[in-house]
């Protein structure tokens, strides 16, 4: 089923316990092993912050197929996005980002830039950097990774028409 057929983006400031468990599973199966997280509670500490918004696409069984969180960190709005392996390539990630862009003035996040890392299932983690570039994100040379676990760069999108007063 493509996104155009009966899919919609749900926006929420709170996730149910079962949804956090689903997001944790997606996190640990989708991201490189270097950033595995032990529990939903630990994941909430990473993501949940003031003014957090969750953008979600659910399947017919109401399980999360794609999730994007936008939250305050440092001096800007950061994001993290996950799309289930079964729905990758169907436009869900693009739909979440495009929807978030209608509600946010800025999105910033870390992106693995090399293909030298592996997921928990042993498959290579493919860098999504080209995906973000197609969606008008640019490299932010003012942010540098501090932990050294992954070969990452910071990407940033800003709404050109947004002006702060």
CA gyration radius, whole angstroms: 15 Å
Q: In the CATH hierarchy, what is the class?
A: Alpha Beta
Mean residue pLDDT: 89
Written as H for each helix and E for each strand, in order along the chain, the element string is EHHEEEHEHEE
Helix/strand class: alpha+beta
Residues in β-strands, percent? 25-35%
Q: What's the overall geometry?
A: globular
Helix content: 10-25%
Count of all domains: 1
| Number of DSSP E strands | 7
Strand order of the largest sheet: 1-2-3-4
The assigned CATH architecture is 3-Layer(aba) Sandwich
State the major sheet. Answer: 4 strands, antiparallel
Low-confidence stretches: 1-6
The N- to C-terminal Cα distance equals: 43 Å
Q: CATH superfamily, called what?
A: Gcn5-related N-acetyltransferase (GNAT)
Task: Count helical runs.
Answer: 4
Description:
The protein is α+β, with helices and mostly antiparallel strands and 165 residues long. It has one domain (10-158): Aminopeptidase, CATH 3.40.630.30. 23% of the residues lie in helices and 26% in strands. The chain has helices spanning 17-30, 40-47, 92-101, 129-134, and strands spanning 10-12, 53-58, 64-73, 76-83, 106-112, 138-139, 152-158. The strands form 2 sheets. A 4-stranded antiparallel sheet has the order 1-2-3-4, with helices on both faces. It has a 3-stranded antiparallel sheet with strand order 5-7-6. α1 (17-30) packs across α2. 24% of the residues are buried.
